[in-house]
User: Fold this.
Amino acid sequence: MAGTVTAVVRSATRYVSESKPAQAQVSDVQSSTIAAARHKFLDQAEAPAAAAQATPSTILSQATRIDHGTRPIYLDAQATTPTDPRVLDAMLPYLTGQYGNPHSRTHAYGWETDKAVERAREEVARLIGADPKEIIFTSGATESNNMSIKGVARFFGKSGKKKHLITSQTEHKCVLDSCRHLQDEGFDVTYLPVDSNGLISLDQLAAAIRPDTALVSIMTVNNEIGVIQPVAEIGQLCRRHKVYFHTDAAQALGKIPISVNEWNIDLLSMSGHKIYGPNGIGACYVRRRPRVRLEPIISGGGQERGLRSGTLAPHLVVGFGEACRIAREEMEYDSKRITALSKRLLSGLLALDHTSLNGDPSRHYPGCVNVSFAYVEGESLLMALKDIALSSGSACTSASLEPSYVLRALGNSDESAHSSIRFGIGRFTTEAEVDYVLNAVRERVTFLRELSPLWELVQEGIDLNTIHLYKSVMATAKTDVAQHPVPSFQRCEPGSINVPVHTFSGPGDEPSDPVAVADDVVKSFNQALSAGHAAGVATLFLDDSYWRDHLALSFDFHTLKGRAKIQSFLAQNGLWLKSIESDKSSAFRTAHVAPFDGVGQHKGVELFIRFTSKHGTGRGTLRLSHDSVSHSWKIFSLFTSLDTLTGHEEATFAKRPVGVAHGGLPGRKNWAERRAAETNFDDNAEPVVLILGAGQAGLTAAARLKMLGVDSLVIDRNGRIGDNWRNRYHQLVLHDPVWYDHMPYLNFPSHWPIFTPKDKLAEWFDIYARALELNVWTQTTITKSSWDESVAQWTISLERTKADGSTESRTFHPKHIIQATGHSGKKNFPQVPGIDDFKGDRLCHSSEFTGAKPNGQGKKAIVVGCCNSGHDISQTFYENGYDITMVQRSSTCVVTSAAITDIGLKGLYDETGPPVEDADIWLYGTPTSVLKLIQCKVTALQAEHDKDILDRLAKAGFKLDRGPDDAGLFFKYFQRGGGYYIDVGASKLIGDGKIKIKQGQEIERVLPRGLRFADGSELEADEIIFATGYQNMRSEAANIFGDHLANQLNTVWGFDDEGEMRTIWRGSGHPAFWFMGGNLALPGSKPPGFDI
Assistant:
């Protein structure tokens, strides 16, 4: 009989070898069979690929070919995975000859299956870093989740002391339903919200923990959007509060490294069919030390340590164990391969208009890609893609017609959630399948949109929110999240993090001899470094501490929060740091008592350091606090910033160039001739780096590379260096003071004005480029670009207009490109209906505004937007006699220039402050959460200083805010890139009624002589200026290099989950492509310079 069964199994595919379990493998013959089967399938699938030229009816008819017997491409790996042939090989013996009950202790049949079960238990334990005795086999993750949550709750509930649980709104349905059942039993459950990127807030979690909290349950990888929660930090937080931590790791097991001990996990749920094992088997990790107490939810024979009664199925257990073994051994390979396929798929999908990725793009498992296709109904798209196995959400809830509760928790509208598709990439997915899927999705999304009347309106440039019927329909579909939108001043760049505000406990300490305290800590730190033990280094930090590193521990930016995170990072990446020493070269640098919160309510010891690392030397800061537990001084924050790369020291001071080659060399060129040849890249010379943009970012990058001995070429489409400022509106003056604005290697002269006029700054850029001998080509554009992965270089074709008016075409092959075209991207110019009908004198974006016409009496102007440019332009109109109205749609953070110089920057960036290099190190040495706390206090002081003008603004109907979490314009700039005004006079004009305000209304239509608003009101105008800002830098990359490259780039600006700026000055997502940007106060040229 067994032979018959085996023959039947093999007659269909012949994929499974006849090897014994210990030798389970896929043979070359079977590999060929699999490949041949795939090729056969793909050959059958070729017909729809040609449907791009077909009629819509043909496309949909071909999409239903599954009904005729052809199997679809499988891209639903989050629902289940195919059983790996090696797993089936391991299982087969336990379906035939070795069929004993593993709990039978009296004969060989039971012994041999029990031995196999224990071997499998060991493999499961090895995959997560556990002891085999801590693995309890179950029927799958649903049972494990029920067992963990109900078991812990009911155990503690019996005493009545702990009847509170915490979970998140985006957990798997079995977790949420378990919690709801417990609520019916009298338990209290907190459902944490998630940010728009799908991640919970650790601060909100900490605030939710109560003395009666028994359990926190947060999943590791979300099954719908693939975001990876900060599990290690959650575990650390729970351990500190002595609360059990459970995580549903069904989607993480075997896909990302898991360490239950390093992550302080107490219970963990797993499932076999998610990792190419059999269905119907899973496990629950239950910690033994410290022991986790839970009440069993199944009664019976007391198997599995009495926690899960019932006879185990040996073939399923063995299959699960084998799947875990394969996953552990092949995780690195699988991860690289799936990541590559994911990038290929995602870049192609996002190349479609009006598509977006759901979930955080950086903390994300690449095998789960959830994309929203606007103006397409998800279920319709699934029906049109019947040749591809996909889902619109969790397979466990796919029968529901309700939009995904996970996507709604992210803040997505019902229509956005309904338009979302999940693509699940797995171990057996091929490039050909991904390419086929991309072609099919493009065709069918295009077709379905063409059927939609809404799509036709969008193509015509009509804002659907201005259509009454559409608005009324959407109003009835609002979710709870949409009914309580995040205020505009709290919003961040999409996908970024609203950094939490640090909290100090107590006033700190003020030692009588801070130098001695610092010397002792530095000595202990160096001893720990010499010993080479990550744990020894980590013990010198407080539990609630920070190590902020810029390139000294890795060639990236990191802020490691907490002792456990620091130890884990050092253990994984190695100790690059070799030694540190106190910097006692000035009073500002020498150890001293200092306020850590900016106002003196919490004090400690602060000092500057110098260090030596594996790759060079650098500087940083050290802040020390007294630990009341150990009664010793420990590190609250450490900042390390690499500034010199060994073997690539800068050509400054003792290493400066000689400048001349003395001697009788025939034909020797003088300096001017050499510079001309260098600038023109004569004699087939090539730049190593091509820099786009000759503003402060591009010139800063070029200067840094120059000092490192790297040849670069800066190109700019403007006629002269500095035109990016020179061509802006007439009265523009920098709002930041001179002490805060600077460029490397050449400081502003001591007579320089506090606030720099735009034209003066433009002249300075020209002087700077000439003095530092930077190679700059103006009137130059890119005509063609490509990247060759095989030789790791670009091919860039340029069109250049020379000073004499002649043109030339040149092609270079740089190794790197730096886009330094400004912190922002393309102008954000709303396409309001009726723009083409405007009959006034001027309607343009603020970037095109050259100034108000003189003698504007009798003229009316409207400025849409209330940030710096909007105010400056409005003030310019007023000064030229216009009747001016400024349209404010949300709220603005306003701080006077005086409050910034006299409060915000005083003592650090002012005439009496330290050298600007020291001020920068102090500023960047402050962890972002701590800096946010400082800015909250600074903002309150500035608001008190500005009370009179702020009150007058409010009285005039101008809506004010204090930035995210009341942290002011500093964090509005970093988290959102705008939304503030540094008052240099316009606020008084608003308070006096000389600049009128139209507040809180969106524009419905541009009229021939003005604007109509959503409330039906109208304003007349001869000129309309949209000071509506700019899109993300990525949009300019798309404009220059095309969508294919831009879709591979990470989103720029805003903070990542560690509090570091995203993408800018760091890896961009595409090899050898870098972003540079920001104001003159943001030093960012080191990372690209060092990597290049």
Remarks:
- DSSP finds 35 helices and 37 strands in the chain.
- The CA atoms of residues 465 and 471 lie 6 Å apart.
